[in-house]
Write a structure and sequence with these properties.
Number of domains: 2
CATH topology of the largest domain: Pnp Oxidase, Chain A
Structural class: alpha+beta
CATH class of the largest domain: Mainly Beta
CATH superfamily of the largest domain: Electron Transport, Fmn-binding Protein, Chain A
Shape: globular
Number of helices: 3
Largest sheet: 7 strands, antiparallel
CATH architecture of the largest domain: Roll
Number of strands: 7
Distance between the termini: 22 Å
Helix content: 10-25%
Amino acid sequence: MFFLSTIDHQGRPTVSYKGGDPGFVRVLDSKTIAFPCYDGNGTFYSMSNLLGNCQVGMLFINFEKPHRLRVQGTANVNDDDPLLKEYAEAQLVVRVVVTEIFRNCPRYVHRYKKILSSEFVPRSTSETPLAPWKRVDDLQASLPAKDRARVEREGSLISRAEYEKYMTDIVSRES
């Protein structure tokens, strides 16, 4: 996992979490790394930011053995990158030409241990569960046709109130 910093259309910095299975960020050569863009909330916020301003910052944190690594570079977003076929369900591939890499002092990094991988990370070995928010009845008109068809096929439409209860239950279980 890493945090991706981009600049929005108003010149404001913003940060997004990017996660995947180990190896989803790839070092392609001494100056280039790549990562996939998976299905998110449908706004393509980070990706559209990169189309307007290709400057990125990436922050990698190892919480088990405190370590931070910062990467600065210029990004290119591509929907027909040759790597696309190597990432299950990826919609785009981002290649970053690295302009600077530096370590950060790890002394304020809290120690955490990974407990469980997300079931929503796309894998070629299984179908990725549909995000629960995509099942909400009053959001259906905003979804891509493939998501609407899947909800209809699986018969799993829920109300906004049911979704809010689901989210409350998750937070309660995990706290």
